[in-house]
Amino acid sequence: MNNKLIKDDPVEVPLEVIDEKTALKENLVKHVLDQLPNALQAALPALNAYPNDSGVLLLTVMAALIDGKPDHALRFLHRFTRKWQAIEYEDQLLRAIALAQQGHWPQAAMIGKQIGWQNLFSAFIHLPGSWALSDWAHGWVRQIERHEDRQKLSGAAKKGLERRKAEAAKSERAAKLPREEKGEEKARKPQAEETAPAEAAPETSLGAESELSALPRYQIRIPFSVEFSDSLESSLAIRGSSDEADREAFRLRHELAHLGLLQGFDELLCLPTLRGIETYWYQLETVRKVLKQFRGRVLLADEVGLGKTIEAGMVLKEYLLRGMAERVLVLTPATLVGQWREEMAAKFEIEFATSYDSELRNDPKKFWSQPRVISSIAMARRAEHQEILVKQNYDLVIVDEAHHLKNRATANWKMVNALNKRFLLLLSATPVQNSLVELYNLLTLLKPGIFKTEKEFRGSYMTSGKPRTSANKDRMRDLMRDVMIRNTRSLVDVKLPPRHATTLRVDPSDEERACYLELTGLVAQAHRNATTQERMALRYLLSAAGSTASTAAGAIARRLESRNGNREWRKLQERYAAIAPGSKEQALVELLRRNPNEKKMLFVHHRETLRRLAELVEREGVACEQFEGGMTGPEKDAAVRSERSARRSFCD
Amino acid sequence: MPAGAERASLESDWLEKFSRLLDKRGRRLKFASSAEVPPLGHVERLVERNVVLQNAVYRLSRVEPAWTRYLIFIFRYTAISDEKREGIISFGLNLINGSASDPMVGQLLAAAVDENATEAATKPAPSQLPADWTAERLKKAITRAAPVRVRSQLSQFVNGMQRRLDRDLERLHEYFGGLREESWRKLKRQKGDAARERLRMEAAEREYQAKVSDLKQKYDLRVNIEPVQTLELISQVRRVALAIKRRKGERKLALDWNPIGRQLDPPPCEWSFVAEGSRMICDDQLHIVSPAGHSPCPQCGKEYCRVCSPRRCPKCGREEKELAASGS
Q1: Per-residue pLDDT at A367
Q2: Which of A174, A561, B67, B310 has the maximal Cβ count within 10 Å?
Q3: Are A2 and B328 an interchain contact pair (Cβ–Cβ within 8 Å)?
Q4: Of B108, B88, B78, nearest to A253 (Cα)?
Q5: What residue in B sits closest to A295 (Cα-Cα)?
Q6: E strands, B49-178, where?
Q7: Reported ipTM
């Protein structure tokens, strides 16, 4: 109704006639808003009295459409457009509806394509009684749009439909269902799709055994909320200040405001804020892609050592700097919580609360309501915490070692799936370990339905008997391009810091050699009649003997305790225990003595070896720190802090 | 590049440094334009083209030279969803009547900012200018006028998001529909555990709802608007006085013809401060409003003036959405 006259202007209208018109118009408005029958009949007196009134003309068009008389509607619309100019596209909206009512769907869709579907959707606000008729107008536009979508899906979709029909027919025969019943179902399905309600309550199909009602389709308009900055009031209050004559400053600020708009994701704001990180080109490219192309939902599957954590940290920092994220949750394996906190604080200057904090136990609600949290995934999935977590809204969720989410039946997967999140980064160097289904499960978290259902995925992309081989590589690669980034060493061709690997061969002493030979003999003897579990225990003994003599002695002692071993085993244990520092231990001590000021890190497999070596090194007068998997989070953090001032560290 | 100059990227910290250097300067400018008003011919035709009243008549009283003050506001907005968009909107108000000067706001700004712009030699006395608006009245005008303009500028961005949202909704519908259909087929064939399949179907429906609300949150568009600058432009105008008659009531309206934009200000909308479109006059207070400001109540269908009843419909009491909150 917000229209502009483009021809004669009916300026001089007597007042009493205006009253009459108003009464007629009110009657017409009532008919149209309530969508009463014979609305067109109610419109005609008003239209005859005032054939050139824009509001009455539009109402008459709408009345004709409500009555299902598109020919009349088009005629009145023509009269409207001859005399008036629409402010937005309300005339086009009415034309499209009229064409659709006439069955000219392609022509109606053409209007949507020409002026933009969004414009067509929003044009209703310029119609009289717009808000009351929004559902009516939206319903029609949605139908026209859907009709257009269906036209597009001609080739591939037709084939798919035929295939599905064939499958349905096959299953029908197998189930020996009456043919008529199936036919009814097929006929009903597209109808159900067409009459989808907007924001309607879901209809459950469980009550009806004979037919499956379609899931409701939702039409969600983008929620749009506006708030003014607090500086609005102060800016209004400073009027009359002394610097009101500085034209140059005004001009400069004007230009500054416009230049500031030109910043995009091409230049990363986080780069100057990073501390002690050498970034590589592929990492920057990855971060840009995540921000621009993937819109913050991606599986980062770089090979080990290429810096997935750095990439995730940069994405996080970028979102924080741009004000696009406030609440962040990082989920990692328990052993990595401290490392994540350390890296985020040291390299990105982002402070996080972690699941090591005592607040988690004292007041879980308060803990989880903090804006930035790093938690072990095991802690987060516990029922008492998960209940709180799923009620939180997160802007960004990062899951490290995301292959722990490979199984959709696990509590891990379900918990991450249930989180309310806007951006989601999954980090894993090995997204597929045993089967492509694992990849399917990960990508379903990012974009549910990207590969349809698991059954369809198996049918379309997996090779029977070869769960890790894709049957349709090109198509799969196309789809994964939308949700996954994988950098490999061969691809990035980056000169990473050189790694010098040297193997130092150490010959065992005579006693060590003799003990090991005896041990292998005893193991071989016991292995013959051993169960699978026992065989694993025997293999462990060999592994311990390959470490140090004291580790072997400890392992044999535990075996004797649990199995009451015979005299030969007991004697061997005593011989191992009697061995003073073995050849390997002596060689290690020699190596450490060579350059005492250099920091060194030792990785060992067995906990006993760790303790033994720690004693040995302490005896040599060298400070060291131990770090092992059995430590609690705070203990690990303390060990790392202490390691910075110590010279050597042992890591299990 | 001139000698001694250094190339600075738009994304470098130079802009930040520059902003700090400017500090609070340049936020406001008061400028009296030297543009002179030529005599106007065919005033009736000019008014006829610009003033469209849907339910009232008017009479042209007189045309005279005058001074007026325009307030031109420049705002920066930041729209954040899963993407971010920033932009600048500017709009102007003529303080004589609150009419929006959108069609010529660029020219009005240029008249003050351009290096060649000259200031009027003799400035008008305060009594010759329209009275200043209170901060509260200005705030009300801004909070109604800005969201409409931001929304209009963001329409392409919102369209793109809407398309993506529609695609995502379609994908979810297909995926969860597929899951339910698989379970339903098994039920029909009496293959597998019936209770388990029913639970699966229920779970798919629940999950579908959850994912739909997840999407709604993901695409939720929050717009923050912050003031950047305000220009107070004093300008000579040709003032056209009109007497507007609605039923037995009559009110006066002064419309200014501006020599910088060389056009007549549109009639004000005292509700939404929009520039475009025709106007309606309310019966009680003779407010001038756009048709949206006098539209029927969606609940009871009564047309009523939003300036007289800004909060609720006088007939059925339905609450009116604030323009700023709804963004429409």
Answers
A1: 95
A2: B67
A3: no
A4: B88
A5: B82
A6: 57-80, 84-94, 99-100
A7: 0.87
